[in-house]
Amino acid sequence: MRVNTETLQMRIKRLKGLLADIPEDLSELPEDIRHILNTGPQPLVDMETALKQIHEPDLLRATHEVLTQIEGSIEWAVGAAKGQDIAQNIRTGNEPHPATPSYKRLNQRITQFLSAQVNGEQYLELIKEFCGDDAVQGHTVYMDPTGESEAFSQWMLHDKRLPVQRRRLIELFAEEFLGKIPLDEQALLKSRLQDRPSIYRATKFQKDRKTGKRRATYLVEDLLSAKEVIRIQDRSTSKTLHHGAIFIGRAIPLEGDRFFNLLGSISELSFPIWAQLSVKVEVWTKEHNSQNPGSSSHDFFRAYHSKIRRFVYQ
Question: In a 3-state reduction of DSSP, which class is residue 30?
Fold first, then answer.
């Protein structure tokens, strides 16, 4: 990740957005989580003010390190608060509020659907498959509540086929509910059904001629699809990714197949990790293709997504 005033300000803005979006009722959350959620905004405001006067590289790096610690705490606390809210909606079977953004309404419906498809024991076994056996001790789950848990949720919904099921869970959800949900959710669901999960390399960024700042659109090379290049439109990652950055992501079509967005956060890989992982990927690809002739690179990624993640985490 690049460290400069612009990227630090963007990260602060994102955290402020996370805190502004938490459920109103925090009474059932542990005290330490409530404390983070209640006091979190002020350090962000202070840091935002200080950044207006900081330009030296050493101070920017120090600010980056402090912000990274704050990010971890806030993301963990927000994840716990939203998890409680989702669990409550699942228990009650509440319909999403119409004023809620379309992606949140759709996510709530999908989560409620998943709860009916996967019981507690199955869920723990899926976590072990994705994260490793040591991620589950009894009925306690040890999983990073931000990046790792989001990646797990994407895998379970978009890639994994449960025993005796011939289709992905998101396809089963669409089969039952596509015609029953609002039009804006339908459009979003149709895009998510055409997802492109892969390992990408950022190859070309363009700058606005007037401002000199990067545009929100950039090119990435699909490292699993014979170096196919697609166009990503995503303001956040266009600011934080560096040229040549390699990351695991799930691209979603925006306008046919002309532009793509990235679903959720991405997992950037260091060059040493990719150097080791690429050797594994080559072996796994040959293994997969010999057993599934004619399959696509996206089919390979879905089949080996959990192995790829476990290798990276280890």
Answer: coil
Q: What are phi and psi of 214, to 5 degrees?
A: -65, 145
In a domain, 167, yes or no: yes
Residues 220 and 301 in one domain: yes
Which among 32, 57, 91 is the end of a domain? 91
Q: For residues 89-102, give the mean pLDDT.
A: 70
Domain hosting 186: range is 102-192
Domain count, the chain: 3
Say how far apart CA 199 and CA 217 lie, in whole Å. Answer: 18
Rounded Cα distance, 303 and 24, in Å: 39
71: enclosing H helix or E strand: helix 57-92
Counting Cα atoms < 13 Å in the Cβ hemisphere of 130 gives: 24
* Residue 139 resides in a domain: yes
In a domain, 165, yes or no: yes
The 10s digit of each residue's pLDDT in 238-272 is: 888 889 999 999 999 987 778 999 998 888 999 99
DSSP 157-209: III---TT-SS-HHHHHHHHHGGGS-HHHHHHHHHHTT-EEEEEEEEEEEE-T
Say how far apart CA 121 and CA 126 lie, in whole Å. Answer: 9
pLDDT at 87 over 60: no
Together in a domain, 210 and 287? yes
User: What is the helix (H) or strand (E) element at residue 215, kind and residue range?
Assistant: strand 214-222
Asked whether residue 26 falls in the same domain as residue 116, the answer is no
Instruction: Tell if the pTM clears 0.70, that is, is over it.
Output: yes
Smallest CA-to-CA distance from 109 within 120, 97, 126 is with 97
